[in-house]
Amino acid sequence: MNLNFKLKYKSKDCNARIGEFTTKHGIVETPMFMPVGTQATVKTLTTNEVKAIGSQIILANTYHLWLRPGADLIQKAGGLHKFMNYDQGILTDSGGFQVFSLADIRKITDEGVKFKSHVDGSKLFMSPEISIEVQNKLGADIIMSFDECIPYPSSYDYVKDSVIRTIKWAKRGKEAHQRSDEQALFGIVQGSNFDVLREYCANELVKIGFDGYAIGGTSVGEPKSIYKNMIDISIKHLPEDKPRYLMGVGSPVSILEAIERGVDMFDCVLPTRIARHGTAMTSIGKVVIRNAKYKEDFTALDPNCDCECCTNYSKAYLRHLFNVNEQLAQRLVSLHNIYFTHQLVNKAKDAIKNDCFVKFKNEFYKQYGIDTTKDNGF
RNA sequence: GGAGAGGUAGCGAAGUGGCUAAACGCGACUGACUGUAACUCAGUUCCUUAGGGUUCGGCAGUUCGAAUCUGCCCCUCUCCA
To answer: Are A204 and A226 in contact (CB under 8 A)?
Structure first.
């Protein structure tokens, strides 16, 4: 399905851009951030809450839903939207990330990937065709090609073989796509930190032709300078008139650096995961809410935030909830962190429209406490 | 009053002559987390000027060496009266 992507504005001070695309579940303006709901739920939150904080698309995961409850069951339920009660956009990841994250229990062949189920140890086989078939059944608005997310660092020879495989898999997936009139399909650029391989991968994917292009294999432990270069090189070889989706990125710094380079879409587990682990992202920096210094701090988590959490509860209260292991703590901070990320991207969007993105970014870093001389930090 | 059990780091609890500044758990503290095998994981937790110093209820002994053995004392718990 053609998302009918429209490039609405290009910032004059950098490569950042404003765009818009349409799915059956609404019009989406970019840049935008998608919270992750791997197992058909953004952990701890209801779909109404997710919708209320401004999420327009959420992610779900093919591998995990394939295992439980199974694609047929979700199809029977009327598709993922109905099953999980979400009438906004849904994007399903292909299972490609599990090739990376479950590396210890899988084996790659040209045909596909053999997994040893993390649930019960049973033997599973995922191929590009199966991934697309499962995603067709799940029925998300945007689906992803089955790829191999490569660890960093990897050798040139390994990455080269892997990229060739990922391109073949993308082609096979596209050919297997049965619902191309309803579901957009994205290709994923890999190539690790090797410019020529990223270039090759991007060019080959564009030849095959997809409704959008993702940049994969970043934020897997590489230094920031390499991260930035991976994005630059990938984008250089992607068409301007299709959405660009940087997979798995969600720290404020990573997002802003990518927006500056022309990325339109993001997804990440970081806001929700660190929330559950007791860390909040705020306008004045990272807050590890369990820290003793917040014991008697009765002020809001983020003084500049008007989310449900910040307008109603104090740091001392949140700290207490974490200390006594109350689940409301995880819910409130998850809610805040997603809201914060949406707000960050919205502010970035305003800055692009006003041609002052770089200035906005630098001011944010200053307030957030980012040391720009360092090659890392989130 | 009688019989028995026991006192170990913030708490609980191992350890019954040297490998023990003392397992383990909890609590506390700090950090990590980027297409979620993640309410997870890692580290610190007697004092320290980092050389050492002072510990296992208290005191006094035995021994080359004691949380561990001996004596006395203090305290706690359980059962019976």
So the answer is: no
pLDDT in tens, A5-37: 999 999 999 999 999 999 999 999 999 999 999
Per-residue burial over A337-362, b if 16 or more Cβ lie within 10 Å, else e, is: bbbbbbbbbeebbebbeeebbeebbe
What percent of chain A has pLDDT above 90?
97
Residue A377 has pLDDT above 60, yes or no: no
C-beta separation of A328 from A289 below 8 A: no
A184, two tokens: 């957009």
AA identity, residue A199: E
In Å, what is the separation between the CA of A97 and the C1' of B34?
A: 12
Question: What is the 3-class SS of A219-269, one letter each residue?
Answer: CCCCCHHHHHHHHHHHHHCCCCCCCEEECCCCCHHHHHHHHHCCCCEEEEC
A361 phi-psi bin (left φ>0, alpha ψ -120 to 50, beta other):
alpha
A174 CA – B18 C1', rounded, Å = 73
Q: Are A11 and A352 in contact (CB under 8 A)?
A: yes
Say yes or no to pLDDT of A179 above 90.
Answer: yes
The pTM assigned to this predicted structure is 0.95
With cut-offs at 50, 70 and 90, classify the pLDDT of residue A378.
Answer: low
ipTM, 2 dp: 0.95
Active site residue A181: no
Nucleotides of B under 7 A from a protein CB: 27-41
Cα distance between residue A267 and residue A124, in whole Å: 26
Sheet with A6-10: list strands edge to edge. Answer: A6-10, A17-23, A26-30
pLDDT of A337 higher than 90: yes
Catalytic residue among A93, A147, A211, A302: A93
Q: What CATH fold (topology level) applies to the domain A6-268?
A: TIM Barrel (3.20.20)
Domain range annotation of chain A:
6-268, 275-368
* pLDDT band (50, 70, 90) for residue A375: low
A267 counts as catalytic: yes
